[in-house]
Amino acid sequence: MKAARREKEITDFHFVIYLKKQEMKMEKRTLRGGFTFMELMVVIVILGILAIIVMPKFFGRIDEARITATQIQIKNLEQALRLFYLDNGFYPETEQGLKALIEKPTVGRVPNKWREGGYLEKNILPKDAWGNDFIYLSPGSQGEDFEIISLGRDGREGGEGPDADISSSKI
Q1: In a 3-state reduction of DSSP, which class is residue 167?
Q2: Which of helix, strand or coil describes residue 99?
Q3: Which of 1, 47, 139, 168 has the most beta carbons within 10 angstroms of its beta carbon?
Q4: Sign of the alpha-carbon dihedral angle for 146, 150, 156, 161
């Protein structure tokens, strides 16, 4: 019995010493108070690799979202132009442009039944997703009643991908 008790005391003693050593290690870690240069470099390299992998996919999605937003904006402008047509029996002329949706035209064919307050919510003419003005043609380049065009990300005619023109006749 005494031997078993003595053995238990020795085991308990070793356990206490083990806990003290662990406590001292923890204190050393907290006293250190920061990361080594090597640890920081490893983290920076890992973040760089992740950025190289993820960023192209992320930016591709941004361009897709802007193209979709511009297409929706064109559809909204088409609806406003149809309301203009229902009230007045004609579409605004190219010279009058989309501005005819927010201000009553005073040049060209002047509408008699132009809606007070305009045809766009908040009476603001929207821009495309890249901040450029839309181009309005009446009649359109394909012979349609009108055409609304965004010149895309680069703001110039033509282009491919996000730089491509977005036309109401092609959506």
Answers
A1: strand
A2: helix
A3: 168
A4: negative
Q: Where do the domains of the chain lie, and which CATH numbers do they carry?
A: 53-171 (3.30.700.10)
Q: Which H or E element spans position 13?
A: helix 2-32
**Tens-of-pLDDT digits for all 171 residues of the chain?**
666 666 666 666 666 677 677 777 766 655 556 778 888 888 898 888 888 777 777 776 888 899 999 999 999 999 999 999 999 999 999 999 999 999 999 999 999 999 998 999 888 999 999 999 999 999 999 999 999 999 999 999 989 988 999 999 998
Q: Secondary structure of 27-95 in the HEC alphabet?
A: HHHHHHCCCCHHHHHHHHHHHHHHHHHHHHHHHHHHHHHHHHHHHHHHHHHHHHHHHHHHHHCCCCCCC
Q: State whether the Cα torsion 59-64-69-74 is positive or negative.
A: positive
